[in-house]
Write a structure and sequence with these properties.
The protein is of the alpha/beta class. The chain is built from eleven helices and eight strands.
Length: about 300
């Protein structure tokens, strides 16, 4: 569990691990240089299965790598210090590995999103069918990242072959790792929402430029360098450009948003979702104009 200034959420995340029906677990919390009470809260748990490691701030990829290296089990699962697991998550995934004779290198699940007000229905898989998210998923993963980190469980031996999170990526290191695992191992999927992802609306406008560049690094490394046919590469580029168009629109950058949408349309000009994106961007621009008038 990587943690950085997580004093308001980490207790709930830790409790979701303690409440697991599968009890043969260890929780390794790595405090990534927090300046608040994160470590003190973690230390307050008198639980032998919980280990706290403190280090200087170096980012989530390095923090997760350290936790993997310190882990002693044969299976590794990931949970951030603001997300939650359903009480039967570990039990169902361990049973899934065993019942399938450990043929999978990675097993992921569905999940729910939530905020301070309410929970949202299990997040649907966009632009990929459920039959394509298990088995050999390399090409699909290059096109679209459909694996949520908080749902993942990996056989630890997998890291010996494919390596850990790549520190050259910042915020997209998980997508890069899943692709590298998929190139060597089959994926399993449990069609149940076994985790809860906390939505955080803060900071999008501050990080959007960096996020754009980091996503492109994965696209360039895997999708564009692959031997996939042009239609599949165009789909991956379309998804990237369209995603960035929506992200820039939500962060109040309509001009940049529309430029990305134009790039998306060039990749797949006849896709009906282009029209939906156009209306979405116009709607967000309208809302921004309304808010601006109210402030005057």
């Amino acid at each position: 569990m990587p943690a950085y200034n997580a004093e308001t959420t980490i207790a709930e995340s830790i409790q979701s691990v303690i409440d697991q029906t599968y009890q043969n677990w260890e929780l390794i919390i790595v405090d990534d240089g927090s300046t608040d009470e994160t470590s003190q809260i973690a230390e307050s748990y008198k639980e032998k299965r919980i280990r706290l490691i403190k280090k200087a701030n170096s980012g989530v990829a390095d923090t997760r790598n350290l936790a993997i290296q310190w882990s002693s089990g044969s299976l590794v699962a990931f949970l951030d210090s603001d997300d939650l697991w359903m009480s039967d998550k570990l039990e169902k995934q361990v049973e899934f590995f065993i019942s399938n004779n450990n043929i999978f290198g990675l097993v992921h699940t569905g999940y729910i999103e939530f905020d301070k007000i309410r929970e949202f229905n299990p997040k649907p898989f966009k632009h990929v069918s459920k039959r394509d998210i298990s088995g050999n998923v390399t090409s699909q993963l290059m096109i679209h990242d459909f694996v949520a980190t908080l749902t993942v469980m990996v056989r630890k031996e997998v890291f010996d072959e494919v390596g850990l999170f790549d520190l050259n990526f910042n915020g997209t290191e998980d997508w890069d790792l899943w692709i590298r695992i998929a190139q060597k191992y089959r994926f399993g999927f449990i069609d149940l929402p076994l985790a809860k992802y906390r939505l955080n609306p803060i900071g999008l406008s501050k990080t959007i430029n960096k996020f754009e560049k980091e996503l492109w690094k994965v696209v360039n490394k895997h999708l564009l360098a692959s031997d996939l046919d042009r239609s599949k590469k165009n789909k991956g580029l379309w998804l990237y450009f369209r995603h960035m168009a929506h992200s820039y629109a939500k962060s109040n950058n309509p001009e940049i948003a529309f430029s990305f949408l134009v790039k998306a349309i060039k990749c797949r000009p006849t896709n009906i979702y282009n029209i939906a994106s156009m209306f979405y961007l116009l709607y967000l621009k309208f809302l921004i104009c309304l808010q601006t008038k109210k402030l005057r």
